[in-house]
Amino acid sequence: MKKILVVGAGGQIGTELVPHLQKHYGKENVIAADLRDEMVAKLQTFATGIKLDAMDYEAFDKTVKEYNIDSIFNLVALLSATGEKNPQFAWKLNMGALLNSLNIALENHCALFTPSSIGAFGESTPHDDTPQDTVMRPNTMYGVCKVSGELLSDYYHTRFGVDTRSVRFPGIISYGCLPGGGTTDYAVEVFYEILKTGHYTCPIPKDAYMDMLYMPDALNAVTTLMEADPSKLVHRNSFNITSMSFTPEQLFACIKKRIPTATFDYDVDPVRAAIAHSWPNKMDDSCARKEWGWKPQWGIEEMVDDMLKHIAEKLGL
Ligand code: NAD
């Protein structure tokens, strides 16, 4: 029986990962923790929600012991676009929360999942069919943290035997909770703006091609990887996974097909444009497919239908 602690549970991924884990492992076996009071209050409406600062080692360790936790999901991070506004703090938070998670996992014999990102790649990485093992020289603090995190997580596995596992998430598209300051946020924001006002001004260049994943596939990736037979895992930190790649122009064409009155223009943010430009167009996820059976279900057309349906419902339209 798994007893799970999700830290940073109040964000875009956590608010949907918690119910997904509850479904798999039982509601009483998932503890959802976040730093921000409003997130904790939201989590408490459907889970055992607690306030916890992942940077506070003592409190984190005490929580793991108190609830007999055997699996930690560490979602704490300052994301790519926000991280560039305060890179020193991004390093402190992203690496601090990870190091605490690793040491607490080691001390308490827990498995640990920490997502990496397409942000771990950079300009010099091959952009098409980006291999699992390749050049990783990112030029954002977010990316520097992700590469360092992957290395540290592998180190804790080989040196101390901690069961660390991870995926490199591309941009995650979802309707549950707004994204928290990443470069691919446009692919969520556009649905709200088009349904609310009929118009969207995009901060990303129209031809910026990036990998994306719809939330149901992202959630399945997490549980499938964490359940995978360890003897089959050649890699651990971290696996390329993707299910669709598109440019803003291609996504907007799909939306316009369904809402012909929708209009779009661009007011490009140079920081986000540079980040988008440095990321892969499409990752090769064959290692994930081979080593633990990664098999995404959602493509762009089905995702657009589902997003429009659910966000319209949410907005009461
Ligand atoms: P998010 O910003 O939406 O959520 C992060 C949560 O962490 C927030 O609720 C925040 O309150 C909480 N938090 C911040 N500092 C904390 C602390 N000290 N202690 C406890 N909680 C704290 O992020 P997300 O989009 O849910 O991303 C989760 C993970 O997935 C991150 O590691 C991120 O890098 C990775 N990822 C996300 C995406 C994406 O598109 N969303 C893509 C690639 C990778």
Task: Please characterize this protein's 3D structure.
This protein is an alpha/beta fold and 317 residues long. The chain has a single domain (77-317), classed as Rossmann fold (3-Layer(aba) Sandwich), CATH 3.40.50.720. It is built from 12 helices and 16 strands. A 6-stranded parallel β-sheet has the order 3-2-1-4-5-8, sandwiched between helices. Strands 6-9-13 form a 3-stranded parallel β-sheet. Strands 10-12-14 form a 3-stranded mixed β-sheet. α1 (14-25) links the parallel β1 (4-7) and β2 (30-34). Nicotinamide-adenine-dinucleotide is lined by residues 7-8, 10-14, 34-36, 39, 52-55, 75-77, 79, 93, 97, 115, 117, 169, 171-172, 179-180, 182, 184.
Mean pLDDT: 97
What composes the largest sheet?
A: 6 strands, parallel
Low-confidence stretches: none
Total tally of structural domains: 1
Which structural category fits the helices and strands? alpha/beta
Please summarize what this structure is.
The chain is α/β, with parallel strands linked by helices and 317 residues long. The chain has helices spanning 14-25, 37-43, 57-66, 80-85, 87-108, 141-160, 186-197, 215-227, 248-258, 270-278, 286-292, 300-314; strands spanning 4-7, 30-34, 48-51, 71-74, 111-113, 116-117, 128-130, 164-165, 167-169, 171-173, 199-202, 210-214, 239-240, 244-246, 263-266, 282-283.
